[in-house]
Amino acid sequence: MTAPPARMILPADLAGDILVLAEGLSFWGGVDPETGEVIDAHHPLHGQSLADRIVLMPTSRGSCSGSGVLLELALNGHAPAALVFREAEEILTLGALIAHRMFHKTIGILRLPPAAYDQLAAQPSARIAGGRLVAPGLDLPLHRASATDLALSEADRAMLDGAKGAPVALAMDVIATIATAQGATGLRNVMRGHIDGCIYAHPANLTFARAMAEMGARVAIPTTINAVSVDRAACPEPSLPPAFGAAASALADAYVEMGARPTFTCAPYLLEDVPRRGEDIGWSESNAVIFANTVLGARTAKHPDYLDLFIAMTGRAPETGVYLTEGRRPNVILEVDLPARYDDGIWPLIGWLAGRMSPEGIPLLTGLAEAAPSRDDLRAICAAFGTTSAAPMLHIAGVTPESTLPPLEDAQHLRITEADLSDAWAQLNGGPADVNLIALGSPHFSLEETRAFAALMSGGAVRAGVSVIITLGRDVYQSAMAEGLVAALEATGVRFHADLCWCSIVEPVFPPDTTVLMTNSGKYAHYAPGLSGRRVRFGSLSDCAHAAQNGHVPSDHPLWQR
Length: 562
Known about the structure:
Elements lengths: L6 E4 L3 E7 L33 E4 L8 H11 L5 E4 L5 H13 L4 E4 L2 H8 L3 E5 L2 E4 L2 E4 L1 E2 L9 H7 L5 H16 L5 E3 L3 E3 L7 H13 L7 E3 L16 H16 L24 E2 L2 H11 L10 H8 L1 E3 L13 E5 L9 H12 L5 E4 L8 H14 L6 E2 L15 E5 L1 H10 L9 E9 L1 H11 L9 E6 L1 H9 L2 H8 L1 E5 L17 E4 L2 H11 L2 E4 L2 H10 L12
Parallel strand pairs: 1-9, 2-3, 3-4, 4-5, 11-12, 11-13, 15-16, 15-18, 16-17, 19-20, 19-22, 20-21, 22-23
Antiparallel strand pairs: 1-5, 2-6, 6-7, 7-8, 10-14
Helix pairs in contact: 1-2, 4-5, 5-9, 6-7, 8-11, 10-11, 10-12, 11-16, 13-15, 13-17
């Protein structure tokens, strides 16, 4: 079999020092968008700078918002000179494409076959020039990815040629480039979209959205919007800094102006109208993508920020990966040893570990069917899995709808032991026992979770000096109000914020005097040290209720070790 060529996705002429990341990195929550420094406390290269270096990593992982972080770095001059991948990658590739196509900032993007990748990783520096990659002992021609490699329909070519205007032409150009980079041969119709790039994490998101809105961009399929950085529902909140609040509102307004529905939730699968099994959709936001594929049986790649808008504008997506049945087959089988007793804190740990043990491929988890995980348990698995794996889905034998798909012939067989679970618990519990913020709703709280927490807090009250904040979508918030849950929990001292989520909260909505926070979310426990600068405790919903009422965690050990 002929080895795949070394591919130049985005051309560049540059030279630089090489930095090798042995494992993937989520730029969202993992890289400081102002400096290019690695802030993921769990990553081996924590504290290293990516700026102006040729960065090698197998592929990216984690949040779809990484593309926005890379665009911000390109605009402020702290981006890597080039990114070199060994596997398929689209999140950071898309950020580099937007930087180049719209703002004339160049970041080289290469994808190398494994042997060439390993050879380059052993070198201290390299140069990309004249369509070649040159390093000591290495001189590789680079195949230029081109839309001519793609079989486009007449309608696709018309959009690419500008028949529907300049914004749609730009959208089709970027979609086609991403498709060829992924090795797709064509595009696929999608029926609905979900926009992730509406969080005001940095100025680049607003710069992009306003530029597209002012060009006249409009969505062409039903499209929902992720959580934003301001609470636009009827929930009281401290005043945001005026400049930040105005920019965050302007960002949300830009997507509504382009025709997206103002749902403002990171859990669109909790809305009344959800995708059906087998339905092709174009979603962004990692937890939503993984849940849609895994639990609903819908089909969507983990589309990066900005590509989600382009897909919504055209109704077309690259026909590759998990859009195809073959691309949904597991290549890792993980047998899970459940402890004799456990609580709901076990599910994020399983997802987090599954991602670490299958950082690039789709795993099949066995041993969980008898436990009958609920929808919220499955949400917790999917959200935590997305922080440590680049894969857009997983399977759970006897639980999820496509778990009978046959594994690939060379699938690895691995085991998640009780010791692994305890180690994961310890890694997510780096803070002291005394806590002064309970952070719930990452992803957004469901109505069932709100009911459960109300029952846990019944007869108690939030301890003085402790803040408890629940984030949730406006639809769930209205339902919780109708049931009296909001009033009951507010009477205990709990605060609610709709439209926001923990990955987008800033001070003073995030209590400035917080030193240690506690969460039941594996996703937020992973990202919070880098995003908030605070120390973190992780536990079950019951553990969080105990900490809310007492100001300290119930134990320094998970339930099965108590």
